[in-house]
Amino acid sequence: MKRLWSLFTVTALVLALLAGCGSSDEPSGSAGSGGDGEKTAADYKIVLLLPGEVNDQGWNASNYAGVEACNEELGTSMEYVENVQPADFEATFREYAERGYDIVMAAGSQFDEAAATVAASYPDTMFMVVNGSNCDLDNLAPLFPREYEASYLAGILAGYTTETGKFGMIGGESNQAMENLMAVYGKTAVEVAKEHGFEDADYTLSYANSWSDTALGKQMGETMIDDGADVMFVYANELGLGTINAAIEKGAKVIGYSSDQTTIDPNTVVASVDFQFATMYTWAIESFMNGELAGHQVHEVGIAQDIFVPIYTDNVSQEAKDAVEQAVADYKLGNVDLTALFD
Q1: Is-contact 24 297, C-beta < 8 A?
Q2: Which DSSP helix (H) or strand (E) runs through 321?
Q3: Across the strands, what pairs with 55?
Q4: What DSSP line would sit under 115-164, residue for residue?
């Protein structure tokens, strides 16, 4: 795998996400209502809002794993709410803040604006949006997993999996973070495929503007596969299950993303990049309870914190596994700058 050297030292993503905010890979500062030595972990009132169902085998499942880890490892009594719809974002945030919750978390950048709106009225509640970027207040502490690092690993696997050099990609919606991770995946997959003799390798990318329409996901997957894609990559919650079903029926392969989707059909989903959000959640909640998680800054995590874990089936070659392992090592050494691949 060729190393990807950047010519840039400042990226558009950092400017867009972190303008006016601090950014840290480690906790710092004070969390306001956190750090109360008289409280046990179970005393903290914490809730996670999810845009879909916890059994989606994707984004919601990955975040729900964080709830389970906190309760099991830290002794919290963290709650969760499934299927929170956009029209109810502000009302749901406000409901739990009114009830005196210490932390209200939400899984997805789509919650960012509503969290910022409500947070201004409830300074004693910490609002944490996973994939969020708004940190204009002392009680806003978004958690930002660098998902493009996970899609880099997925792209390497796709490049070793393809037999045609044609890649199909589907995103739930078009936002900056999604566009960046798709660009990294697609360009990486194409580069690896070209290194293996597919000189005309390319990818097709479409956005569904939906996270839950499985029928639409299947239709989009069928279209791309019929047009020649032999490896699919989809990041769109329940919609992605439809795409995987299309691949099963048509004999295409899938590189799973955000959770271990190989369990659906290991002959179709030949590998996955699992988001180990349990690690991120336990770190964030424990840091808050210790009074060490600051608001007014974005907390970033990724390959360096070992939250993106490749899952392999027997259909993945040792050469591909070795390439991913080497890519992780190179990235941790600072030898790869993926921001050069952003559109």
Answers
A1: yes
A2: helix 318-332
A3: none
A4: HHHHHTT-TTSEEEEET-----STTB--EEE-HHHHHHHHHHHHHHH-SS
Single pTM value for the model? 0.78
By the 8 A CB rule, do 231 and 253 touch?
yes
Give me the pLDDT at residue 305, please: 87
Rounded to whole angstroms, the Cα distance separating 55 from 76 reads 22
Of all helices (H) and strands (E), which one includes residue 46?
strand 46-49
3-state SS class at 203: strand
For residue range 189-238, what is the model confidence (pLDDT) as tens digits? 999 999 999 999 999 999 999 988 999 999 999 999 999 999 999 999 88
Q: Answer whether 186's CB lies under 8 Å from 158's CB.
A: no
Give the whole-angstrom CA distance, residue 19 versus residue 15: 5
**CB neighbours (10 Å) of residue 228?**
14
Q: Edge-to-edge strand order for the sheet containing 308-312?
A: 202-207, 166-171, 231-235, 253-258, 269-275, 308-312
Sign of the dihedral defined by the CA atoms of residues 183, 170, 106, 284, in that order: negative
Q: Does the pLDDT of residue 270 top 70, yes or no?
A: yes
Determine contact, residues 128/147, Cβ cutoff 8 Å: no
Q: pLDDT exceeding 90 applies to what percent of the chain?
A: 81
Write the CA distances from 30 to 50, 125, 128, 231, 287, integer angstroms.
26, 13, 15, 46, 10
pLDDT of residue 56: 86
- CA pair distance 233, 244, nearest whole angstrom: 9
Helix ranges (DSSP H) in 142-250: 147-161, 176-195, 214-226, 239-250
Average pLDDT over residues 104-113: 95
